[in-house]
Amino acid sequence: MAAFSPPVPFDPAAASPGQRLAVGQLLAACYALAYPQDPPLLPEREAEGLLQPAPDEATDHFVVWDGDTALAYASLRSSRSQNLHKARAQLLVHPDWRRRGLGRALAGVLGAHARTQGKTAVTFFTINFAPAGEPFARSLGARVVLENRTSRLDLGAVSPELLRDWQRRPAEDPYRLHLWDTVPDEYLPRAADLMMVMNTAPRADAGEEDWIVTPEMVRGWEAEVAAAGERRLLLAAEDTRTGELAAYTEIFWSPERAALVYQGATAVRPAARGQKLGKWLKAAMLDAVRAECPGALWVRTNNAEENAAMLAINVQLGFQPWAQTLEWQLGGQG
């Protein structure tokens, strides 16, 4: 077995451009192996993304080096102000260096670091396209806390009649739609409040408290998306009787990887459910994708298997099961 240097902390801001690019190349190589049919990740973009902190988040990075080449990478992310017991982990080993103990070495470093930070629950994801991930997770003693269906939609196969039907609204409908790249200042507090509806979605950690979203966090996410060379389109339904934003959906798209669109969150306030707002938003967003995302061919989304309502909407639109994604947890409540 070839020897390798132990994992060491990695500070993207203090690292050289060449070191950041080496990590970006590793991330792109791992993605290409797991998703060979996808538009490839751009190493330069991945390197730039290491410099962009997420709002209210602390991220610690670790790398296994062979000279100037990054062989393996891991990160531990956590909020600075909420759910302080939790952290999210990512661990990747270059395809040419797997089965040599690098992943286990990184996992040990991450675990020790999480303990020193007082984290009692660490979550991470595996996907069946990288089949080594599940047995590795089990070997660490992790347990599955949420099963997710990753689905894919062929935009060319979507029924125009279905989209038109879902966008028909009753006479004197009190709701109107807004499509934004950047949330206008006048709507920013309302948008932040609306995003907290995602606290009603299935969650993995029984000990997790509801997340609080602030206007500053929304602006930070917008900056993060822009720095990654992406667009985020957010479609919100406003109740004109009160000015409250009642529902929203969002997508992420990069012109550099134009064929693929990522569907983000979709949420409807509990009090506004039963009025087909979710179907309206999803249909209107697909029309927006066709108009705003030239070259888009596919939409990919991820839903908890227990989220029957959203899965039903996606299936009616034509989304097909594409992969299984498992959320795992080490520690925390069972």
Automatic annotation (TrEMBL):
Question: Is Transferase set as a keyword in this record?
Answer: yes
Q: Which residues belong to any copy of the N-acetyltransferase domain?
A: 17-165
- Would I find Transferase among this entry's keywords? yes
Q: Which UniProt keywords apply?
A: Acyltransferase, Transferase
This protein's name: GNAT family N-acetyltransferase
Native species: Deinococcus wulumuqiensis
